[in-house]
């Protein structure tokens, strides 16, 4: 933990971390970066297991190169190469600092193409804007965007059966890149729903959401470039890195206990576990 903090301070002062050695064919691949958060139960009072659990968010980011493989049926699939993870029990600035550190280690800023994928959380998109270069491509998770449309449909159709037909149609148009058409439709309906303020507010919120992320919704172009449309690789990391270890039945963590074990799991996942342990000097009792 002290080593990570020291590297972050040195980087902020203008120093650069030691870069990992990457094979040439790996360096040339597209870099995909995604981020998300997952809740973990903590003890309400330090040193005591008593009281109701308090859930706190662990912020996670994944960096990887996008390779290709062909399965047994001859279908091309994306394969993550050189995957590295960062995670922190802290605020969005803590995540940004650790992501910037790992990005330098992985030579991300020298990559020909960088892609960011996440849901619409404002803090995550601030990390995208502050950490990655201006030419990086931002992709709003397709399935999260579709979920926003479903919320609009619930407000629009008041849970009537016709919502399903509308949703399948508008979801298809979203995949086809007809975002301006969808925004205009939501705008019109938000104005019509005058007598139902709560429903009108939902429609207006989803309209503004799509307008804000307009440039992150060009799904036909992303698919043509063989880029992922969803952040499943990050959600998967949330499950196996955090949930499977820290959210077992009855588990509640102290902050120190959680943070210590999180650093160990990150070192293991990133192939740096052995480097945490210095060899004992010859002649010591345990050597």
Task: List the topology elements.
Blueprint lengths: L1 H11 L11 H4 L3 E12 L11 E17 L5 E13 L3 H14 L8 E5 L3 H10 L5 E4 L1 H16 L4 H14 L3 H14 L4 H16 L6 H6 L7 H15 L8 H15 L18
Parallel strand pairs: 1-4, 4-5
Antiparallel strand pairs: 1-2, 2-3
**If you compute it from the alpha carbons, what radius of gyration comes out, rounded to the nearest whole angstrom?**
22 Å
Q: Strand pairing plus helix content: what structural class?
A: alpha/beta
Mind describing the biggest β-sheet? 5 strands, mixed
> What coarse outline follows from CA principal-axis ratios?
globular
Mean model confidence by pLDDT: 90
Elements, N to C (H/E): HHEEEHEHEHHHHHHH
The total strand number stands at 5
Summarize this, please?
The protein has 287 residues and is of the alpha/beta class. 47% of the residues lie in helices and 18% in strands.
């Amino acid at each position: 933990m002290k080593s990570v903090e020291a590297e972050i301070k040195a980087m902020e002062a203008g120093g650069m971390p030691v870069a990992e050695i990457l094979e040439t064919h790996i360096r040339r691949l597209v870099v995909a970066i995604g981020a998300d958060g997952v809740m973990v139960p903590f003890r309400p009072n330090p040193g005591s297991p008593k009281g109701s659990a308090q859930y706190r968010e662990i912020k996670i980011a994944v960096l990887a190169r996008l390779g290709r493989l062909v399965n047994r049926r001859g279908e091309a699939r994306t394969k993550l190469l050189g995957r590295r993870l960062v995670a922190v029990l802290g605020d969005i600035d803590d995540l940004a600092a650790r992501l910037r550190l790992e990005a330098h280690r992985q030579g991300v800023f020298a990559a020909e193409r960088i892609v960011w994928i996440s849901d619409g959380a404002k803090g995550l998109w601030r990390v995208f804007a502050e950490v990655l270069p201006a030419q990086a491509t931002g992709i709003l998770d397709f399935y999260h965007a579709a979920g926003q449309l479903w919320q609009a449909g619930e407000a629009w159709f008041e849970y009537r059966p016709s919502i399903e037909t509308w949703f399948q149609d508008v979801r298809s148009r979203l995949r086809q890149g007809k975002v301006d058409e969808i925004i205009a439709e939501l705008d019109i309906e938000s104005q019509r729903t005058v007598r139902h303020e709560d429903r009108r507010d939902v429609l207006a919120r989803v309209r503004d959401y799509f307008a804000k992320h307009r440039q992150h919704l060009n799904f036909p172009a992303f698919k043509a470039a063989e880029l992922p449309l969803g952040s499943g690789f990050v959600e998967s990391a949330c499950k196996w890195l955090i949930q499977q270890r820290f959210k077992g039945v009855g588990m509640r963590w102290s902050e120190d206990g959680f943070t210590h074990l999180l650093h160990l799991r990150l070192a293991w996942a990133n192939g740096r576990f052995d480097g945490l342990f210095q060899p004992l000097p010859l002649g010591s009792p345990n050597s």
